[in-house]
From TrEMBL:
Keyword Aminoacyl-tRNA synthetase: no
Native source species: Apodospora peruviana
Protein name (Swiss-Prot/TrEMBL): Nephrocystin 3-like N-terminal domain-containing protein
A Pfam family: NPHP3_N
Biased composition (Acidic residues): 831-878, 886-896
Region (Disordered): 707-731, 798-966
Domain Nephrocystin 3-like N-terminal as annotated: residue spans: 68-248
Keywords recorded for this protein, A-Z: Repeat
Feature: compositional bias, Low complexity: 719-730
Basic and acidic residues compositional bias, start-end: 955-964
Length: 1327
C-alpha cells in the first residue's frame, strides 16, 4: 500500500515537472514570438535612426543647458494649467494645447527639453520630435511621414513595455499596407485603443513638437499632418491629449495657433540669460586673475559695468549672450581691451557677430573654410566627420590625376569653434556628426556667400558629388562577398570597402541629383552629366543606391518613381525652362529620363529588394541579391538605350529591327511562334493598329550572341487586292523558314496569315448552320481556336467552336459580345466555305453515308495483345458510331456524285479575326469548369442513357452549358497548290473547352492524334485507312479538369507523350465560407494547377489501330493561384527526345525539366522532375509575357525567350490571391505569376527579348524539385509544389480509357421485393 502510494506521489511530481517544463517552453516561445513582432513593427516604421538623433538632441540639450535655467517655465501659470489639466469633469476626450514662441536663439529647444524632462517623470506617455534645420532630406509629405513614424515608434515602445500583446493587432495591420502618414496614424489609433483596454482608463498623452518653423517649407503638407496627427482620436479612445509646440512666430503658425495659450520666451527668459552672464563673467574673472575687476567704470565696478552692458545688449537671447562672452574671452587681455570692446565693438545682432567671427579667420584658411561651410550649410542632412574629410580631400586634389591625393587630407577640427558643433552618432561612435550650431548660422551663410574670399555656395557640393561618382575606381562594379543574404550589408565592413576611402559615397549616391539642381545649367555641365550617364560609373551608382539608399527604387502612386535626374536636365521640351539648352543637345536629357523610367519598370523591383528590411534575423521575407546589379539585364532594354552596354550576368537582346521608342512605339504584334528544332523565332507584326501592312520577321537564335534577323518580309496580301500577283514571293519567303504549323500552337492570327501565303484559303470551320425546314437549329459560332500541324505536304487543320442551343425568347440571360476585332482582310477574293469543289474528287471518299465524318470508327480490337487496350473495363465495348450525341449530317460532303448539287451562293467577303482575348463564351466555360461547386454531385437525370467515360468528373460529363464542337481535316498539298482532303472528322457536344492543344502528326505513319476537349477525349485517326477511334485521358482527380493538352511523338516514332495542364478548385471553408444551397461561397478560393505527363508505347504492328500502352507517368504540382489567362497561357512547353521543359511566366525563371521515360537505377532513386539550382531573375514584365526555354545550344547553353508584352491586347496573367504580405512574398520568392498590381505594369507594348544562359555556370546544373506542398496529390499544400511519379495509389492511372455504357438506376434495375403486409412489389427509390 505504502509502496503504491509512494509511486503515485513520484508520478505526480514527475507529471508536475513535465507540466512546468512545458509551460516554460511555451512561455519562451511566446516571448520569442512577441519579440519578433516588436522588431517587425519597428522595422516597418523605420524610425530608429531618426529616434537616435532625436533622443540625442534631447539629452544633449539637458547637458548643455545652464544650471537652473528653465525653472521660470515650470512655475509659469500657463504651463501649470496645461500640465495639470485632467479629465475629471470631461470624462476624457479632451485636448489641451500650449505654444512656446520666441525669436531665434532664445533657448526654445532647451526649454522644450526641460518640459519633456518634467513630464516624463510622471506616469504618462510622452512623445517628442525635434525638427533639425540641417536635415532637409525630404520635403512635403516625406517630412510628415518621418515625423509621424518617429512619434508612433515612441508610442509603440511605451505601450509595448506595459503589455507586449499590443504588437499582435499592429502586426496584422502593417502586413497589408504601405507606410504613409495615414497608415501610421491608423497604427497609432490601434496602439492607443489597446492601451486604453489595458489601462482601463483615460490615456494621458503628451506630444512635444519643436522647431516646426525651421522647415524650409513650413506650410507644407507634412507640417500640417504632424500637427493634426492625433486629432479626432478622442471620439473612439478616451484620451487626454496635450500638445506642445515651440517655435518662432511665422505667418503660417500665427494663423494655425491663434487660439492657443502662449508663453513668450523673451519675457520669461531674461532672468535665465542674466544668470548665465553672471556665471560666465565669474568664470572669466576667475581665469583672468591678473585683471583688476574692482576698478570703477562710470561709477560702477568693472564686473558690474560689463554685466549691465551685456544684459542690455542680449535682450534675453541665449545664443547672442553666449557668442558675446566667447568674443569677450578672446580680447580680455587688459582692462582697456575689455572697456574698448564693450564700448565700441560689442555687436548689436547675430548677423554682426557672425561677420566678426569670419573676419577673424586667416586668409590661408579661406579655401578650406569655403569648402567646409559650403558642405555644412547646404548638405541635405548632417554630415559625418569622415564624409567631410573625404569630400574636401577630393576638392583639393588635382582633377587631372584622378582620385584622392593623400597629401591633401585636411585637419579641420581646429576650424570648428564656435560655429560648428559635433554630436555622437550611436551607429558610428568614432565618426561624429558635424553640424552648424544654429539655424541662424545657415541663414547668414545663405545671405552672405561672399563673406570669405572663397565663395560659399551650394554649387560646390553639386560639383563635388558629380566628380566623386565619376572617379575611375567606380568604373567597375564591386565584387561583394557572397555571405548570408539575411545579414545586412554594411558599406564599412572590412571585407567590402574601407571607411576612409568610400565615406562620401552613400551621401553622393542619394543626393547627387538634388545638388546638381543647385547648379546653373551650362553646356559643359550638360555634357558632363550625359557622359556620366553613358559611362559604367552609372551602373556602380545603381549598385550603391540599391545597397544604401532606402526606397530609391520603390514604386510610388500613379506610375511614379523617385526622381533621379536634375530638373533642368530631364525637363520636357514642351515645358523647358531653358529652350536654348534643350535645342542645343537635342533633348537628350529628356530621352535619358524616359529610358531610365523604362529601366525602372523592368528592374526597379529587383533593386528595391536588394537589402532585406526584416528585423528578425534569419527570416528575410524577400529573397534578394545584394548589390548584384548585373542581374538587371540591360540588353533587354533595347539597342538604343543609354544603359545597353552595361555589364550583365547573361547576354540579353531585344528582338526588334527598328529603334524601340518606349512609350511612343506604335508597333503591334499580331502573333509569334517558336521553332524550337531550328532555334528560330517568328514575329508577325503591324507598324500600327491603323496600318494594313503585316511584317514577318524571323530571328535566328542558334548563335550565342547576338540574334540575327535572317529574313523579313512585308505581307503583300495586306497591300494589294490581287492574290495571284504575290503568290511567288510569298511562297519563296515561307519556303525559307523551317516552318511547322504545329509550332504555331493556338495562334490563330499567324496561322491565318501563313496559311494564306503558303497554301491559299483553307476552311477552318466556324460557319453558321442555317435554318432548315422552318425549324430553329443549333448554331456554330466563329471558331474559338484553330490549330495546325504539318508533315511535308500533309497539313492538319483542327478547330473548336461553341455549340450554342437556341434559347427561349423570354430568357433573362445576358447577351455577350465577342472580344475579337477585325483587321485587314486576309481573304479578299474568296470565302471561307468548305465546298467539295475545293478538293479533288479522287482524294475524298467516305465509307460512311450516315454522318459527317469521312472515316469509319474502329473498336481497336485488331491487336492480338490482350493488354493493348488500357481500359480497366476491357470487356465492355461500345461502338461510338452508334452514339446519338455527335453525328450531324453534312450534305455538302457527300460522296455521291450522281446527286445534283445546288447552285453555289455568293458569299460575302470574310475578315480574319485577331483574338486579342478569348470570347465571352470561352470565359464563361472557364469560370464554370474551374470555379464551380466544391463538392461534385451527380447532375439530375435527363431521362436518357448515355455512354460515358469511367471516372469522368460529373461537371465535365454533363455540364449545364453550351457544348463544344470540334472539327479536324487532313489535306495533302499537290505541287500545283491544290488541296486533296484525306480525312475529315466532326464531333459535337464535347462538354468542356480545351485550350492551346494542337494536333500531332506521326513522323512516318498516317496517324494523327488530337485532344478533343477538356474532358480528356483524344482522337486517334488513320488518315490513310480513313479510320479512327477515341479514348479519354482522365484527369488525375475527380474534381480536376484539363486546361490544355500537348501531344508529341518521339523522334523514333515508337512513343507518344502527353502533357496535360490540369486545374482544380480549392475552396477554403475554414475561413468562414458560407454554404448556400449546396454551394460554398468563399472569395478565398484558388485554383490548384498541376502538370500531368504520360508516355505511351505505340504498337509496332498495328500502330494506327491499337491504343498505345502507358509506360511512364509523373504529376507536378505547380501551386495555387487566383486565376490565369486562357487566351495566352502563362506556361510554355518545349520537347526534346528525353525531356519536357515547361516554364511559367514570372519574375524568376520558373523552369521544370520533366523526364519522359522512367529513370533507370530503381524506383525513386533518380529524380524525374528537375529544376535549376541557381535563380535567373527576369524583368517585371515577364509575368505578363510568354516565357520559353530552348535547350540544346552548343556548349550546354540554352535560350530564355520572352514573348512580346502588351498590357492591352496580348496579356498573360497568372494571378495570386490578395492577402497578407507574407503571401505576396512567398509568391515573389517562387517567382511564378503576377507579383504587382495592374497600376505598376507598363502601359506601352514591348518587343520580345532573348537571354542566353549556360546550364552549368548560370543555372548551376539541375536538382530535384523540393516537395514543399505538405503532401497531397502532386503537392496540394500551402504553396502546392510537389512531384508524384509512377504512383499507383496517389493519382489515377493515366491510361487511355475507352467509353463504356453508363448505368441508369431506373432502366437498368429490375428488382422486386414482397411486402409481408400487403404482398405487393416494393420499388426502390433513387436515394
Amino acid at each position: 500500500m505504502w509502496a503504491s502510494r509512494t509511486i503515485m506521489l513520484e508520478v505526480n511530481r514527475y507529471v508536475e515537472n513535465i507540466s512546468q517544463d512545458v509551460k516554460e517552453v511555451q512561455s519562451l516561445q511566446m516571448s520569442d514570438h512577441e519579440d519578433s513582432l516588436y522588431k517587425e513593427i519597428k522595422a516597418w516604421l523605420g524610425a530608429q535612426d531618426d529616434n537616435n538623433m532625436n533622443s540625442g538632441r534631447y539629452e544633449q540639450n539637458l547637458v548643455d543647458r545652464h544650471s537652473g535655467s528653465g525653472e521660470w517655465l515650470l512655475s509659469h501659470p500657463s504651463f501649470q494649467q496645461w500640465l495639470n489639466t485632467n479629465d475629471t469633469d470631461t470624462g476624457g476626450g479632451m485636448q489641451s494645447n500650449l505654444w512656446l514662441k520666441g525669436p531665434p536663439g532664445t533657448g526654445k529647444s532647451f526649454l522644450c527639453s526641460t518640459a519633456i524632462d518634467k513630464v516624463s517623470k510622471e506616469e504618462v506617455c510622452c512623445l517628442y520630435y525635434f525638427h533639425r534645420f540641417d536635415d532637409q532630406s525630404g520635403t512635403g509629405s516625406d517630412v510628415g511621414t518621418r515625423a509621424a513614424a518617429l512619434l508612433v515608434d515612441q508610442l509603440f515602445h511605451h505601450f509595448w513595455r506595459q503589455d507586449k500583446k499590443v504588437a499582435t493587432s499592429v502586426s496584422a495591420y502593417i502586413k497589408t499596407v504601405q507606410k504613409t502618414v495615414k497608415s501610421i496614424t491608423e497604427v497609432a489609433r490601434l496602439i492607443l485603443k489597446h492601451g486604453h483596454q489595458h489601462q482601463q482608463g483615460v490615456v494621458h498623452l503628451f506630444v512635444f513638437l519643436d522647431g516646426l518653423d525651421e522647415n524650409k517649407d513650413p506650410q507644407s503638407r507634412g507640417t500640417r499632418e504632424v500637427m493634426g496627427m492625433f486629432d479626432g482620436f478622442e471620439a473612439e479612445v478616451p484620451i487626454l491629449l496635450k500638445v506642445w509646440i515651440s517655435s518662432r512666430p511665422t505667418n503660417f503658425l500665427n494663423k494655425c495657433l491663434e487660439n492657443w495659450p502662449v508663453i513668450n520666451v523673451e519675457e520669461g527668459g531674461k532672468t535665465d540669460v542674466e544668470e548665465f552672464l553672471k556665471s560666465a563673467l565669474q568664470e572669466l574673472q576667475n581665469d583672468e586673475d591678473m585683471i583688476d575687476w574692482a576698478q570703477e567704470i562710470e561709477g560702477k565696478p568693472l564686473h558690474d559695468w560689463v554685466l549691465a552692458k551685456l544684459q542690455t545688449r542680449a535682450r534675453g537671447n541665449f545664443l547672442f549672450a553666449r557668442l558675446m562672452v566667447s568674443q569677450l574671452k578672446d580680447v580680455a587681455i587688459t582692462v582697456d581691451d575689455i572697456i574698448e570692446f564693450v564700448k565700441s565693438s560689442l555687436p548689436t545682432d547675430l548677423t554682426q557677430i557672425y561677420g566678426r567671427i569670419f573676419d577673424q579667420y586667416q586668409l590661408v584658411q579661406h579655401k578650406y573654410l569655403g569648402l567646409l561651410f559650403s558642405l555644412l550649410a547646404f548638405a541635405r542632412r548632417p554630415l559625418h566627420y569622415e564624409e567631410i574629410r573625404e569630400a574636401m580631400t577630393l576638392a583639393l586634389s588635382d582633377p587631372s590625376k584622378g582620385g584622392l591625393d593623400p597629401r591633401k587630407v585636411p585637419n579641420i577640427k581646429g576650424m570648428f569653434a564656435p560655429l560648428i558643433e559635433t554630436q555622437t552618432d550611436p551607429n558610428e561612435p568614432g565618426n561624429p556628426l558635424c553640424r552648424l550650431c544654429h539655424s541662424t548660422v545657415q541663414e547668414f551663410l545663405t545671405t552672405s556667400p561672399g563673406i570669405l574670399r572663397i565663395q560659399i555656395s551650394p554649387a560646390k557640393v553639386g560639383d563635388l558629388c558629380l566628380r566623386y561618382l565619376s572617379q575611375e575606381r567606380y568604373s567597375k562594379l564591386w565584387e561583394l562577398p557572397s555571405g548570408d543574404q539575411h545579414e545586412p550589408l554594411s558599406l564599412f565592413s572590412d571585407d567590402v570597402v574601407n571607411t576612409q576611402h568610400h565615406a562620401f559615397l552613400p551621401y553622393c549616391a542619394k543626393y547627387w541629383d538634388r545638388h546638381l539642381e543647385d547648379l546653373s545649367p551650362t553646356p559643359d555641365l550638360y555634357r558632363s552629366v550625359c557622359s556620366f550617364l553613358r559611362s559604367s560609373n552609372f551602373q556602380t551608382l545603381l549598385q550603391a543606391q540599391s545597397l544604401f539608399v532606402t526606397h530609391q527604387f520603390t514604386f510610388l502612386k500613379k506610375l511614379a518613381y523617385r526622381r533621379v535626374f536634375p530638373r533642368w536636365f530631364a525637363q520636357d521640351p514642351k515645358n523647358a525652362e531653358n529652350p536654348r539648352l534643350s535645342e542645343l543637345f537635342g533633348h537628350e536629357g529628356y530621352k535619358r529620363a524616359i529610358e531610365y523610367r523604362h529601366f525602372m519598370y523592368e528592374w526597379g523591383y529587383l533593386l528595391e529588394r536588394a537589402t532585406c528590411l526584416n528585423a528578425t534575423p534569419g527570416k528575410c521575407f524577400d529573397e534578394h541579391f545584394r548589390g548584384e546589379v548585373d542581374r538587371c539585364l540591360s540588353g533587354l532594354l533595347g539597342p538604343t538605350h543609354f544603359m545597353n552596354g552595361m555589364t550583365e550576368r547573361y547576354p540579353s537582346f531585344m528582338l526588334t529591327r527598328e529603334p524601340f521608342e518606349y512609350d511612343k512605339g506604335k508597333q503591334t504584334v499580331i502573333a509569334e511562334a517558336v521553332f524550337s528544332d531550328a532555334f528560330q523565332f517568328m514575329i508577325v507584326s503591324s507598324p500600327s493598329r491603323d496600318s494594313s501592312d503585316v511584317h514577318f520577321d524571323v530571328w535566328d537564335l542558334s548563335q550565342s550572341e547576338p540574334p540575327q534577323l535572317v529574313s523579313t518580309r512585308l505581307d503583300p496580301t495586306a497591300t494589294t487586292t490581287s492574290s495571284s500577283s504575290s503568290s511567288s514571293s510569298s511562297n519563296d519567303f515561307i519556303s525559307n523558314i523551317p516552318f511547322s504549323y504545329e509550332a504555331l500552337g493556338n495562334n490563330l492570327n499567324m496561322k491565318l496569315l501563313l496559311d494564306r501565303q503558303a497554301t491559299g484559303p483553307i476552311d477552318i470551320g466556324g460557319v453558321q448552320k442555317q435554318q432548315q425546314d422552318g425549324k430553329d437549329q443549333d448554331q456554330l459560332e466563329p471558331a474559338l481556336s484553330t490549330d495546325f500541324a504539318n508533315r511535308g505536304d500533309i497539313i492538319v487543320v483542327a478547330s473548336r467552336n461553341v455549340h450554342k442551343s437556341r434559347r427561349p425568347k423570354k430568357s433573362t440571360a445576358k447577351k455577350t459580345k465577342p472580344t475579337s476585332r477585325p483587321i485587314h482582310p486576309i481573304y479578299p477574293d474568296s470565302d471561307l466555305s468548305d465546298d467539295a469543289d475545293d478538293y479533288d474528287d479522287d482524294g475524298y471518299s467516305s465509307t460512311s453515308t450516315d454522318d459527317d465524318n469521312s472515316a469509319d470508327e474502329t473498336c481497336s480490337e485488331g491487336s492480338t495483345d490482350f493488354e493493348s487496350d488500357e481500359s480497366s473495363d476491357a470487356e465492355i465495348t461500345v461502338d461510338e458510331s452508334s452514339s446519338s450525341e455527335s453525328e450531324v449530317e453534312d450534305c455538302d460532303d457527300s460522296d455521291d456524285e450522281s446527286k445534283p448539287k445546288p447552285p453555289k451562293k455568293a458569299q460575302p467577303k470574310r475578315e480574319a479575326l485577331v483574338l486579342t482575348n478569348q470570347p465571352d463564351d470561352e470565359d464563361e466555360e472557364a469560370d464554370f469548369s474551374l470555379k464551380g461547386e466544391a463538392t461534385l454531385t451527380p447532375p439530375p437525370s435527363q431521362g436518357t442513357s448515355r455512354p460515358t467515360w469511367p471516372g469522368q468528373p460529373n461537371r465535365v460529363r454533363d455540364p449545364k452549358r453550351d457544348r463544344i464542337s470540334s472539327t479536324v481535316s487532313v489535306c495533302r498539298l499537290t505541287p500545283d497548290k491544290k488541296k486533296i482532303r484525306l480525312f475529315h472528322y466532326e464531333k459535337h457536344g464535347i462538354p468542356a473547352m480545351l485550350y492551346h492543344s494542337p494536333p500531332a502528326l506521326h513522323p512516318t505513319h498516317p496517324l494523327v492524334i488530337w485532344p478533343l476537349g477538356g474532358g480528356g477525349e483524344v482522337l486517334f485517326a488513320d488518315f490513310g485507312e480513313k479510320t479512327y477511334f477515341v479514348r479519354a485521358m482522365m484527369p488525375t482527380t475527380r474534381n480536376t479538369r484539363h486546361i490544355c493538352m500537348k501531344v508529341k511523338f518521339s523522334s523514333c516514332g515508337g512513343y507518344v507523350h502527353f502533357a496535360s495542364l490540369e486545374a482544380r478548385l480549392v475552396v477554403n471553408t475554414s475561413g468562414g465560407g458560407r454554404r448556400r444551397k449546396g454551394k460554398v461561397e468563399d472569395k478565398d478560393g484558388e485554383i490548384a494547377v498541376s502538370l500531368f505527363v504520360t508516355t505511351h508505347r505505340l504498337s509496332s504492328r498495328k500502330m494506327t489501330r491499337s491504343p498505345p500502352r502507358l509506360v511512364h507517368k509523373v504529376k507536378l504540382g505547380l501551386g495555387q493561384f487566383a486565376g490565369l489567362s486562357l487566351a495566352r497561357l502563362p506556361f510554355t512547353f518545349t520537347w526534346t527526345d528525353g525531356y519536357l521543359y515547361m516554364s511559367g511566366s514570372g519574375t524568376r525563371l520558373s523552369l521544370f525539366r520533366v523526364g519522359l521515360f522512367r529513370p533507370t537505377g530503381g524506383d525513386g532513386e533518380v529524380p524525374v522532375v528537375m529544376v535549376p539550382r541557381l535563380s535567373v531573375m527576369l524583368p517585371l514584365s515577364a509575368p505578363n509575357r510568354e516565357v520559353h526555354y530552348l535547350p540544346g545550344l552548343k556548349g550546354g547553353r540554352g535560350v530564355v525567350l520572352l514573348g512580346s508584352y502588351d498590357k492591352k491586347n496580348r496579356h498573360v496573367s497568372l494571378s495570386h490571391r490578395k492577402g497578407s504580405r507574407e503571401m505576396l512574398v512567398r509568391a515573389m520568392r517562387r517567382g511564378m505569376g503576377d507579383v504587382v498590381g495592374k497600376t505598376e505594369m507598363m502601359w506601352y507594348a514591348c518587343p520580345p527579348a532573348v537571354i542566353f544562359v549556360d546550364e552549368e555556370r548560370d543555372l548551376g546544373g539541375w536538382m530535384p524539385v523540393a516537395n514543399d506542398g505538405g503532401g497531397g496529390e502532386g503537392g496540394d499544400g500551402e504553396e502546392g509544389m510537389g512531384v508524384v511519379a509512377d504512383a499507383k495509389d496517389r493519382l489515377r492511372d493515366g491510361k487511355l480509357t475507352r467509353r463504356i455504357e453508363a448505368f441508369n438506376w431506373q432502366d437498368d434495375m429490375d428488382l422486386e421485393g414482397i411486402c409481408e403486409m400487403c404482398n405487393a412489389p416494393l420499388a426502390y427509390s433513387a436515394d
